[in-house]
């Protein structure tokens, strides 16, 4: 107990060093869940640290849409993290809840930590309870959670995430000619 953001960063270094030359997508998502899924040291250590961080108030501190949808950057991209950034998001909803639409210019590696037994996050391959999602480069989506509270701890190559994108359901209708 008593972990800090720095402890989480240091614990992440061997992980990002291992994945730095891999491309996010279904193949990497499968590998992450097989190699570093729940019950493995990487998953269990990072999940415990980020859960502690949210509970102690050093992670997922900025309200995006009230207390039930919060996020905060834990580390900016830096050399010791192989130029990944680390961000934590807290989402809590029984019904499916949509967060802010965004794009992953270089992909995303996302550790999903359910705080409630039925909590899950929608990834590119469906709903994920505990484990990893890995949206591919140029993918875009609404983050969605349901079934209770969860934390998403995500690693972004070069820290790149874009909210400067219009969701398909928000685009103006094109008049028929």
From TrEMBL:
<dbReference type="InterPro" id="IPR032345">
    <property type="entry name" value="PnbB"/>
</dbReference>
<protein>
    <submittedName>
        <fullName>DUF4863 family protein</fullName>
    </submittedName>
</protein>
<dbReference type="Pfam" id="PF16155">
    <property type="entry name" value="PnbB"/>
</dbReference>
């Amino acid at each position: 107990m008593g972990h800090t953001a720095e402890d989480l960063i240091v614990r992440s270094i061997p992980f990002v060093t291992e994945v730095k030359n891999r491309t996010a997508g279904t193949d990497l998502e499968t590998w992450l869940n097989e190699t570093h899924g729940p019950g493995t040291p990487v998953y269990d250590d990072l999940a415990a640290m980020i859960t502690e961080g949210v509970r102690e108030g050093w992670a997922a501190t900025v309200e995006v849409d009230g207390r039930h949808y919060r996020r905060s950057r834990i580390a900016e991209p830096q050399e010791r993290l192989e130029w990944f950034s680390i961000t934590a998001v807290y989402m809590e909803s029984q019904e499916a809840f949509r967060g802010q639409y965004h794009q992953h210019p270089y992909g995303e590696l996302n550790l999903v930590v359910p705080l409630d037994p039925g909590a899950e996050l929608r990834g590119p391959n469906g709903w994920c309870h505990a484990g990893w999602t890995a949206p591919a480069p140029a993918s875009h989506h609404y983050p969605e959670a349901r079934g209770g509270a969860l934390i998403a701890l995500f690693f972004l190559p070069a820290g790149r995430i874009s909210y400067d994108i219009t969701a398909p359901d928000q685009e103006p209708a094109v008049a028929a000619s």
